[in-house]
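REVIEWER CHECKLIST
Item 1: Sequence provided? yes
Item 2: Single chain? yes
Item 3: Sequence as submitted:
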Amino acid sequence: MKKTLSSEDLQGIDAWWRAANYLSAGQIFLFDNPLLERPLELGDVKRMLLGHWGTTPGQNFIYAHLNRAIVEQDLDMIFVSGPGHGGPAVVANTYLEGSYSEVYPEISRDSAGLRKLFRQFSFPGGIPSHASPECPGSIHEGGELGYSLSHAFGAVFDNPSLIVACVVGDGEAETGPLATAWHSNKFLDPRGDGAVLPILHLNGYKIANPTLMARIPRPELAQLLNGYGWAPLFVSGHDPAPMHRAMAEALDQAVDEIHRIRHAARAEGNTERPRWPMIVLDSPKGWTGPHVVDGKPVEGTFRSHQVPLKPREHPEHLRLLEDWLRSYRPQELFDEQGRLKPEIAALAPKGTRRMGANPHANGGQLLRDLRLPDFRDFAIDVPEHGARGPGDTRVLGPFLREVVTLNQDLRNFRVFGPDETVSNGLGALLEVTPRQWQGLERPGDESLGHSGRVLDSMLSEHQCQGWLEGYLLTGRHGLFNCYEAFIHIIDSMFNQHAKWLKVTSRLPWRHPIASLNYLLASHVWRQDHNGFSHQDPGFIDHVVSKKADLVRVYLPPDANCLLSVMDHCLRSRHQVNVVIAGKHPAPQWLSMPAAEKHCADGIGIWQWASNDAGEEPDLVMGCCGDVPTLETLAAVSILREHLPSLKVRVVNVVDLMRLQPPSAHPHGLSDADFDAFFTRQAPVIFAFHGYPALIHRLTYRRANHENFHVRGYQEEGTITTPFDMTVLNELDRFHLVLSALDRLPDMGEAGAKLRTLLTGKLQAHRRYICEHGEDMSEIRDWRWPLPVARR
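Item 4: Structure as written out by the authors:
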């Protein structure tokens, strides 16, 4: 491979870099006069100046050199901008290569198009200042720092030809997720996966402070990166000419090493974990920008982070801005019509080799449907309502095992988790695939392999989320299984992905991708053995705050419903699906045909548990979630036994969003349908898996909302029995019945006796559990007892 640049190469790359820098500065500052065809006036400058200059020239420098490598070696490569606030860079480079104008023809490659390009940036009705979804070639916005490297690795899993050039900002490198992401190289299989080329950009400063990695001695930084398992190549300087040569040599060396690693693994069968190359680019922050402003240094300091000049506030800055822009010699870069000169345009890769046009960066183009088995084949037999089951996720496991088997040759489905796949009841997966792992193996290890469909050997929710997002964004499918309480760790990452989905859903050129599917097991009601720290159902509240057309929350009451729901989620597109299910043995309520219909409807009256016979009930017992369903049915059995004349209706909710009106969510029930389930005036005792306030939030517009009395998690927890967890939070059968008695008309002597009985049972339960450490036998041995429950 070429190791040094010719003078012609050097001039071409430098011209591209100057053009990208000019376009980047123009986006931040210019409202008109895009090619400085006349002296710059204040009216040519935007009134509101927004953007980040500091990281931008370094990213332009990298992009220019990557283009040369792509052309010379026919590389399949995409660009991830970790410091994505350098959005002007990715916009500028995709405009120069032509991919931007292909997506947005109105942004033409001439003076008129340049004017529009500049005006739209960080402008009302225009585009954001980051590497946003609107920018072709982007799979990572970079507004919230820390996830670039995780996304890059997710993108290359099962993409053997792909290289992701991932720019990591030195400020971003201080975040927890990014610091952990360096370890992702222990999971990359060089035989079947692509390669990530991290480019750590040391420009020395954050917003107002120095960066750690730029201020530790170079040997210490090298030791750190070597310790992570990387082979760093250092490029450092300020003068463009030697920097171009040094960057070209480092990049050639890195690409050569990637090819060598691939060949050793794929052709020679080498299974040792390689030491992948990376580049450390040490260049000034705000490189090529104003050197001094108002007597203070700017280039190479934190002052260049955002907008280094304010011409409207400081008129003397106008001349500084013009001098800066003209330093790029735009007349050498663009012709009289504002078109990039042909000899510079020719430096770009062609067609889909352009990083802005690479289909991996618009993954929906590459998306293929999963081959899914018939979920009905995995149904658990339910000879009677309340039959004992092995644990709902343990029934789901064989279904997912078959999903893996059917898609082995397509290599387009993976299951991610932070060391919890077996714990969450999905151990059946490991019957057909190992966990992917490139680290050392020792006797006694189980289910580890160089290549596998399960990635759960890293205890980092951040990495699982980032890997899965990168995997989905490049056109594949996946599932993230996690303990319910600890999914909160990635709340903010979920936010960013949901925002990405919202924006891309209105961009016609962005193809829909597979949905992000969460399976949250080991949930709040069955974390009795781990205690209070593991008990938190609040992720649901967080999710439902996002755009309604993007989010779905499912709480299947049993295993057959879970199978039906998961089949639906794996088929869906461009959504976030949250499924919450238990892993412990639990009663099963519905046959597969009944479960399939119930899940399709999302909500239903369980006639077999009700005795209202289709008439107006005296009481509605609603439930959502596996444990709330169990406790509700136990409560109903108590009411049916002691108050047989009371007309009780049982309503079970699988699709939580059915509770909202259709104006708030596409799955919402009309008012008439909602009233048909919950009536307009009967008291409703609603047992919910999560925090009670959420049900009130979803139903506040309904006619009968004032009669909704919701029981759920009240932030009471400890190490105790599952039933005692419900008692502590007043979700248990006894409290549910007492709550019903409080809302019903006077039930006479029978009601008074029942209240006394249940109050005594609660007291007896507390004494017994504190003495024996287990529930009373009537709790342990409870079964759904009513004759109507028999099939």
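Item 5: Key structural point noted by reviewer: The longest strand covers residues 162-169.
Item 6: Recommendation: ____
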